């Protein structure tokens, strides 16, 4: 029985639709399958837990996919034309690079993991590209994807047609959920930053049974040297690839490089010495609320405002100690805006919770239902941060 069959069987059983199955010994050694169900012929629960789950192959595929997608985005950002920026139905921007990145990542995952049954939950869909008005854009995206694949010297890829590109984009239509494996992709997180020429990230996470088990963050414009107080230090080399697997720590390597360094969140315990990150766009997170929280904590440094999950990456290597995110009323967070970033930070020793201190639950589909906002910091600062957040939220509520 092959790898895919075993996994499918396990999933079928966990969904209660199969019972006649065997596990290959080789597979048992390389994966952990945890199934808890009732078989059709006996009424006692059947529980099977099989050793460690390294996700090595998945991590290699994710790094390759995110690195290639970053190359495509860099190409577009360099020659960014106004005509490459479109508006989605919610008025948020989308570019040929968002679509191209999504198509590339989806194509690479399918190609690198042919026997792994998975789905992809991704931000973009092909709706606008299938319209008459989208045909020129679709051609441009297809060219970009093919050019990027052709530039990947070590592999020979087929030339994709416009239909292949549409299909690859629409592979991202999964709704996610608590069962099985789902890749979670934000092909460009921080599109507004991307269009401005600032920070953005290609964010790719993997959910297994509703939990994030792996994450890769490609941040093409993030300096390799630490950032802080909006100032760049010594080296001005840019392009970071952060990655993490559950239980294995978080790492950073130069985008396109191979030497990896383990990263840790900063261990500052005095809020006066801490600095904090927040969204660049005031429309995405209340800067007033962050400033009130920072004041209560006694944070002295001004906020570091950068776009995208590059904030999680920067925090994971200790560039700052706190990330505050308080979307305005009515906004629902999406899993692709936090899956990869949150595992990178937690594997670097940090904590990611909602404003009430609850862990983020990625098992509920596309949305993350959080109380009031998302806060991130190290273990030592979390208790005082939670107190300051509670106080600031109460004050805000009583002033309304
Ligand atoms: N109204 C509103 N409130 C809160 N968040 C929103 C809102 N609109 C969008 N978004 C999401 O924010 C994502 C960009 O991440 P950031 O907010 O960290 O970056 S930014 O500094 O604001 O650009 C951005 O991700 P991308 O769409 O992938 O760029 C959105 O998912
Ligand atoms: Mg978007
Ligand atoms: Mg996003
Ligand atoms: Mg996006």
Which key features would you list for this structure?
alpha+beta; disordered N terminus; 20 strands; 7-stranded mixed β-sheet; 400 residues; binds magnesium ion; D-Maltodextrin-Binding Protein, domain 2; 3 domains; Fructose-1,6-Bisphosphatase, Chain A, domain 1; 11 helices; binds 3'-phosphate-adenosine-5'-phosphate sulfate
SSE layout:
Elements: H1 3-14, H2 25-30, E1 34-38, E2 45-49, H3 56-78, E3 85-87, E4 93-95, H4 96-112, E5 119-122, H5 135-150, H6 162-170, E6 181-189, H7 191-196, E7 201-208, E8 211-223, E9 227-228, E10 231-232, E11 238-245, E12 250-254, E13 260-263, E14 276-278, H8 287-297, E15 304-305, H9 310-316, E16 322-325, E17 333-334, H10 339-347, E18 350-354, E19 367-368, E20 374-378, H11 382-399
Parallel strand pairs: 5-6, 14-15, 14-16
Antiparallel strand pairs: 1-2, 3-4, 6-7, 7-8, 8-11, 9-10, 11-12, 12-13, 16-20, 17-19, 18-20
Helix pairs in contact: 3-4, 3-5, 4-5, 4-6, 8-11, 9-10
Structure description:
The chain is α+β, with helices and mostly antiparallel strands and 400 residues long. The chain has three domains: 3-49, no CATH class; 56-263, Fructose-1,6-Bisphosphatase, subunit A, domain 1 (Fructose-1,6-Bisphosphatase, Chain A, domain 1), CATH 3.30.540.10; 271-399, D-Maltodextrin-Binding Protein, domain 2 (3-Layer(aba) Sandwich). Helices cover 34% and strands 24% of the residues. It is built from eleven helices and 20 strands. The protein has helices at residues 3-14, 25-30, 56-78, 96-112, 135-150, 162-170, 191-196, 287-297, 310-316, 339-347, 382-399; strands at 34-38, 45-49, 85-87, 93-95, 119-122, 181-189, 201-208, 211-223, 227-228, 231-232, 238-245, 250-254, 260-263, 276-278, 304-305, 322-325, 333-334, 350-354, 367-368, 374-378. The strands form six sheets. The protein has a seven-stranded mixed beta sheet with strand order 5-6-7-8-11-12-13, sandwiched between helices. A five-stranded mixed beta sheet has the order 15-14-16-20-18, with helices on both faces. Helix 4 crosses helix 6 (162-170) and helix 8 crosses helix 11 (382-399). The protein is globular, with a radius of gyration of 21 Å. It starts with a helix and ends with a helix. It binds 3'-phosphate-adenosine-5'-phosphate sulfate (PPS) and magnesium ion (MG) (3 copies). Keywords: Hydrolase, Magnesium, Metal-binding, Multifunctional enzyme. Converts adenosine 3'-phosphate 5'-phosphosulfate (PAPS) to adenosine 5'-phosphosulfate (APS) and 3'(2')-phosphoadenosine 5'-phosphate (PAP) to AMP. This is 3'(2'),5'-bisphosphate nucleotidase. One of its GO terms (biological process) is sulfate assimilation. Its EC number is 3.1.3.7.
């Amino acid at each position: 029985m092959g790898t895919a069959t075993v996994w499918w069987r396990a999933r079928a059983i966990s969904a209660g639709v199969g019972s006649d199955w065997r596990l290959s010994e080789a597979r048992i050694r390389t994966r952990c399958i945890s199934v808890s169900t009732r078989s059709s012929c006996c009424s006692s629960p059947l529980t099977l837990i099989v050793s460690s789950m390294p996700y090595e192959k998945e991590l290699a595929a994710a790094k390759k996919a995110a690195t290639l997608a970053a190359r495509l985005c860099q190409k577009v950002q360099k020659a960014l034309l106004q005509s490459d920026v479109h508006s989605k139905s919610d008025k948020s921007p989308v570019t040929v690079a968002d679509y191209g990145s999504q198509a590339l990542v989806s194509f690479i995952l399918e190609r690198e993991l042919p026997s792994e049954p998975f789905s992809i939950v991704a931000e973009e869909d092909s709706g606008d590209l299938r319209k008459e008005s989208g045909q020129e854009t679709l051609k441009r995206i297809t060219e970009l994807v093919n050019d990027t694949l052709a530039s990947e010297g070590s592999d020979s890829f087929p030339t994709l047609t416009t239909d292949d590109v549409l299909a690859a984009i629409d592979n991202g239509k999964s709704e996610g959920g608590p069962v099985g494996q789902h890749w979670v992709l934000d092909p460009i997180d921080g599109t507004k930053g991307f269009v401005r020429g600032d920070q953005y990230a290609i964010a790719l996470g993997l959910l297994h049974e509703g939990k994030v088990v792996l994450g890769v963050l490609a941040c093409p414009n993030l300096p390799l040297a630490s950032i802080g107080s909006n100032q760049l230090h010594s080296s001005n080399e840019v392009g970071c690839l952060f990655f993490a697997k559950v239980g294995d720590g978080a790492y950073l390597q130069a985008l396109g490089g191979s030497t990896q360094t383990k990263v840790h969140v900063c261990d500052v315990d005095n809020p006066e010495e801490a600095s904090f990150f927040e969204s660049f766009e005031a429309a995405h997170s209340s800067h007033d609320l962050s400033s009130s929280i920072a004041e209560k904590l006694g944070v002295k440094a001004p906020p570091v405002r950068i776009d995208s999950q590059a904030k999680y990456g920067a925090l994971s290597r200790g560039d700052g100690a706190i990330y505050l995110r308080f979307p305005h009323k009515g906004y629902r967070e999406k899993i692709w805006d936090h899956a990869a970033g949150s595992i990178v930070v937690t594997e670097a020793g940090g904590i990611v919770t909602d404003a009430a201190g609850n862990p983020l639950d990625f098992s509920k589909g596309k949305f993350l239902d959080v109380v009031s906002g998302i806060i991130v910091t190290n273990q030592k600062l979390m208790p005082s941060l939670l107190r300051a957040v509670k106080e600031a939220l109460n004050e805000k509520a009583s002033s309304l």
